[in-house]
Amino acid sequence: MSGAPTKRRRAWITTALATAVAVVVPAPGAAASATQENVFQDDNLLLFRGDDTSDKTLRELKSLGVTRVRLTVPWRAFAPAHRATKRPASLKDPTDPRQYDPIVFDLHDHVVRVANRLGIKVLFNVTGGAPIWATGTRRGLHPGLQYRPDPKQFRQFVQMLATRYDGTYKDENQGNVPVPRVDAWSIWNEPNQGAGLQPQWERNSSGRLLPVAPRIYRALAQSAISALNATGHGKDIILLGETAPRGVDRRTTTGSLRPVPFLAGVLCLDATTLKALRGRAARDQGCDRKSATRKLGVTGYGHHPYSIVSSPSTPDADVRDITLADAPRLGRLLDAGARLGRLPKNLPYWWTEYGWQTLPPDPIRGVDPLLQAQWIAEAEQQTRADGRTAALTQFLLIDDLPRDEPGQTLDRKWGTYQTGIKLADGTPKPAYDAYRLPFVIAPDARAGGTVDVWGLVRPVSGGAVTVPGTARLQFAAPGTDSFQDIGDPIAVAADGVVRGQMLLAQAGRYRFRWSPPPGPATRPTGLQGIINPTPQAAAPAVFTSAVATVRGA
Questions:
Q1: What is the mean pLDDT of residues 413-431?
Q2: Would you say 443 and 485 are in contact if contact means Cβ atoms under 8 Å apart?
Q3: Is 362 contained in some domain?
Q4: Range of the domain at 288
Q5: Residue 436, pLDDT score
Q6: Is 128 within 8 Å of 63 (Cβ atoms)?
Q7: Do the bridges between strand 237-243 and strand 209-211 make them parallel or antiparallel, or are there none, so unpaired?
């Protein structure tokens, strides 16, 4: 997707949203969480478009206040001869990084090194597909890369990764310079989905159809945790779950389980009563063995709370699903597991994939780009009001391109992801400003009353700027695109919050602007240094937030 922005796209940038001239006073209530991480995932840009694109993307993410990037680490991409049915004889010790082709680490090594220099941390999502030689068989054949991954061989793979990324291992391709340490790990990706782990359902020896994915995943998680502990990563961030928000009621090999019964099965709980499984139900999930119910030594729970076309505050109608508004459902499950000694207490939420697909550019599914921007800001406010949330992750910086295949259907063509905050041609959506500086006014606010406003200077909350500075509220009258400062400067709290109450006078549009505090003056270099050798401060950057809606009375 390329070329000049269309009229509609230009309209996104100068969106007319109703606000009002206001008097601003401090608002009561809790401030934003200073510890919530700003996480981003875009494997395509970070790993697969070359070093220059990766570096440019990391610098842009840094400018947006991102504190950590999530990278997919697929087992099959590192394993030698991953399509073979037998492990190659050359891989005598799968825990030894030196027995793998050094080139397979290059993509991740580069991101880890550059992110480290920029002060951005990394979360490794270690997942399948597995090499065929490490999967199970059915009727003597290997059904696929997701079918019954061997937990013992997965442990060996995780141990190898943890050894290589412990901060001391010397990179074979970089003059034996140590690879920076990775301090955050999550185990598998969407194991309650048939595309991530199989079988989801299977008949046992007596012919009863049972959900088996929880039992398979539990063994994988235990193996990964064991490997991390054995390699000095036991005090790292270790995330269980990485579950998808929804499932289906189809009971087949690929019939994805809903997250509530899936997690209950992993923890050996009854999904309805949240009590320990007993008798045949326990045996069905392998919970009749002591090893199955020992504590899982994790520090958080990873989940993808997509609500697809609903707001972040809209609960899912099915009590077995978990979107962002359903965090209490997840909390009850985790707390029940903790009471039975199967999880640490008060396990925090890591929302490790999130976002909304937009229509356009996708002509089939998605939400209006203006709504995407509004909901990104509301989700930020919502999660930061919840002290249990440790991280919120935006999935994609730039939209995927549609597929280009002969004879494909429209649905197949647009089966890629358009959850980015920029179009595929690089044009920012309204969500770009909404991500950089989230800003929220109550959706039901009307002129003539007093409303709470909430904003966030993300670079401050991410620790990128140590002096918060001030923000200025801005107003644009209806029918104009000219924003003017109103009121006094508002102090940005140390945690990045811009918070207050507005006494609305009339309808209009509203946003806030923020400039990073000026840095120390620098002496010009080159020709400019000869012409004018006096040290000069760089021109301050000015950022404007997304806008929020307040209608007339």
A1: 96
A2: no
A3: no
A4: 67-353
A5: 92
A6: no
A7: unpaired
The predicted model scores a pTM of: 0.90
Task: Answer yes or no: do 345 and 457 share one domain.
Answer: no
Residue type, position 166, single letter: D
Q: How many domains does the chain have?
A: 2
Which of 353, 377, 406 marks a domain boundary? 353
Pairing of strands 439-441, 450-456: antiparallel
Q: CA nearest 354: which of 402, 310, 404, 296? A: 310
Q: Stretch 105-109: mean pLDDT, rounded?
A: 97
In this structure, the answer to whether residues 348 and 472 fall within a common structural domain is: no
Tell me whether residue 387 is in a domain. Answer: no
- Cα–Cα distances in Å, from 244 out to 196, 222, 348, 383? 10, 20, 17, 18
- pLDDT given for residue 17 in this prediction: 28
Task: Tell me how far apart the alpha carbons of residues 44 and 136 are, in angstroms, rounded to a whole number.
Answer: 30
Q: What is the mean pLDDT of residues 435-451?
A: 83
Task: Please write the tens of the pLDDT for every residue from 515-533.
Answer: 776 655 444 444 444 444 5
Residue 515, number of CB atoms within 10 A of its CB: 14
Domain end marker among 301, 321, 353: 353
Q: Tokens representing 170?
A: 């010397």
Residue 419 has pLDDT above 90, yes or no: yes
Let me know if residue 406 belongs to a domain. Answer: no
Nearest Cα residue to 9 out of 503, 431, 404, 462:
431
- DSSP reduced 3-state for 470: strand
Contact status, residue 547 vs residue 481, Cβ threshold 8 Å: no
Three-state secondary structure call for residue 398:
strand
346 and 481 share one domain: no
Q: Is residue 175 part of a domain?
A: yes
* Phi-psi region at 31: left, alpha or beta (left = phi > 0; alpha = psi -120 to 50): beta
